[in-house]
Design goal:
The protein has about 150 residues and is an alpha+beta fold.
Amino acid sequence: MTVYRLTHAEYADNLKASGVSNRWNRAEQYVIYTSGSISLCALELLAHTNGIRPKGTFKVMHIDIPTSINIATIASEKLPLNWHLLASYPITQKLGSDWYEEMNSLMMKIPSAIIPSESNYIVNVKHPAFNEKIRLVKVEDFFWDHRFPTD
């Protein structure tokens, strides 16, 4: 399986995580957020910038995930009604944090907060199998369409 990460060019040469908290992880938990498609990556990033085209040079990272690994899954129907709202971060962060700390799987499949029928994938870079199983196989240029506004 291939998952994708859209990032600034200066971060696209390796699989590192910042440890910054986000929807599915707490601070100092080192995970990489990826998506099942390049278009979902772009949409997720635009959501974080209020629809404003991000500045800078971007790259798409193609990350190979072996089909043999166990992937934990959180289905949207198992989540509270408003799980996608900012106010629900404590709920989703607890779910992701518990998964991270248990170390039972290298990856977790989660619904997109923007398109819940599509999936994002979180990769735990501190999992013992990370260096052996997860591979960055290709990096491509990504160009934002000029019709997206800039600030």
